[in-house]
Amino acid sequence: MSFNDAYKKKIEGQIDQARGKINELKGKAKEAQADSDLKVEYEKMIKELETRKDLAEEKLDKLKDKGEKSWDDIKESLDKASDDLKETINNSISRFK
Questions:
Q1: Does the N terminus or the C terminus of the chain have fewer Cβ atoms within 10 A?
Q2: Is 48 left (phi over 0), alpha (psi -120 to 50) or beta?
Q3: How far apart are the C-alpha atoms of 48 and 70, rounded to whole Å?
Q4: How far apart are CA 44 and CA 26, in angstroms?
């Protein structure tokens, strides 16, 4: 497996982790309907996670489409999207323990 393939797999794993966290938060938001403030917090975090996940997916798709030529340009923006996604996941974990 090349470095590029390993990198793509790593990003796909982070996106999958974000999907799992989004589903978990949606379940908690549904349970928190009696506490509207908590539900609003869950919904804000869900929206932020979905936005960052979608951006990472978009950049990963570009990387897959462009191939080796554009690797450096796209990898830099994908690294940023990936870092933002990881940070958002970690924030949601610490906020809603």
A1: C
A2: alpha
A3: 28
A4: 11
Dihedral sign for Cα atoms in the order 73, 77, 53, 21: positive
What's the CA gap between 16 and 46, in Å, rounded?
14
Which amino acid, 88?
A: T
Amino acid at 47: K
User: 10-64 pLDDT, tens per residue?
Assistant: 889 989 998 998 899 888 888 877 778 888 888 898 999 999 999 889 888 887 7
53, amino acid identity: K
3-state secondary structure string, the chain? Answer: CCHHHHHHHHHHHHHHHHHHHHHHHHHHHHHHHHCHHHHHHHHHHHHHHHHHHHHHHHHHHHHHHHCCCCHHHHHHHHHHHHHHHHHHHHHHHHHCC
